[in-house]
Task: inverse folding
């Protein structure tokens, strides 16, 4: 039974580990970063790191535990969908390295306002924020944290991958979440 459950989890989230496009140990970078675009495919648990028109690396990611669909309100644990930017970064006690994503954007705010006007949201609902790309939760380094979606709406990678992304992703890089 346990083996069958483990097999189902691997099949559901893809058996293969991230495929490295760049053939070095990690992505080389210049002083100002190298990666100018990240594309995240929520349903495939895949993130691509791009420099111009060149795909540098593919990462396996986990997303918000709130299920399919775009983020609508604070606390729904969904990962937003749309086009954003890396607008700041910091060392996080909770998640190691954190690349902040510019959620909510103008489109998210308009959808939120429309939902509130039509009564689809309560008067006390908030749009949320604090969405980012980060490493594992403190103390989770050796757990199979890439087998299930566990974040509150962020995109999570391994500890080493979060360090690599922190080094190579340019400030202002495009982030496309689909």
Result:
């Amino acid at each position: 039974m346990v083996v069958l459950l483990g097999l189902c989890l691997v099949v559901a989230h893809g058996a293969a580990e991230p495929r490295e496009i760049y053939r070095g140990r990690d992505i080389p970078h210049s002083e100002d970063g190298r990666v100018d675009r990240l594309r995240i495919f929520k349903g495939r648990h895949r993130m691509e790191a791009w420099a111009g028109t060149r795909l540098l690396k593919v990462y396996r990611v986990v997303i918000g535990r709130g299920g399919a669909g775009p983020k609508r309100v604070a606390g729904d644990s969904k990962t937003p969908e749309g086009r954003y930017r890396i607008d700041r970064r910091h060392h996080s006690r909770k998640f190691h390295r954190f690349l902040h994503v510019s959620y909510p954007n103008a489109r998210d705010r308009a959808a939120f306002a429309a939902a509130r006007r039509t009564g689809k949201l309560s008067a006390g609902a908030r749009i949320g924020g604090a969405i980012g790309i980060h490493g594992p939760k403190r103390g989770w380094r050796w757990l199979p944290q890439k087998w299930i979606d566990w974040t509150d709406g962020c995109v999570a990678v391994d500890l080493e991958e979060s360090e690599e992304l922190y080094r190579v992703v340019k400030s202002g890089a495009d982030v496309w979440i689909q």
